[in-house]
Amino acid sequence: MPSSHLLAPRLIAVGSSAGDKPIYLPIRLGAEYCAALSLRQLELRFPLHGKHRARQPLFQMEPGTPFTFHYLNKVLGDMKDTFLPVDVEHGLFTYHSCRIYLATSLGSDPSVSPEHIQAICRWQSTKSLLIYRRMQPHQYVQLLDKANSAVITSYTSVNLPCIDSFDNVGDGTM
What we know:
Strand content: 5-15%
Largest sheet: 2 strands, antiparallel
Radius of gyration: 27 Å
Order of helices and strands: EEHHEEHHHHH
Number of domains: 2
Helix content: 40-55%
Number of strands: 4
Strand order of the largest sheet: 1-2
Distance between the termini: 67 Å
């Protein structure tokens, strides 16, 4: 494994709905926030091993105490106040919106396959991509512009003249 990445161990039982792929978190020294380094600090501060790690939530308010709905709802509210423009309806933004944003961002790059988006967003089926990946307005306009300037030279067979090959059978022209 490259030293620039931390592999977060899969803490989810095989066959669960959260996916079976490992999560690779890049180490970003000097970044304002780095999930890999934050997880490392958490593990060093509250080390758990073996069965104890498997039974405890990865993110905790304090050892043995998972985050409460009230606390996470407050964090979400703070995120909305920090990142969303004032004219955006804040009630439309949920934690799931982060996955939608990620899928849309990844999908805006034509070199990123649907399978990669599905794996990174930890979705079990490609149906989720059809529902949640959004086309950006500039992509939409580019597609319309391409369609507008396309030169169409193909025809369907019903638009072609009928050629009856039986008319020429036996006269040496076939």
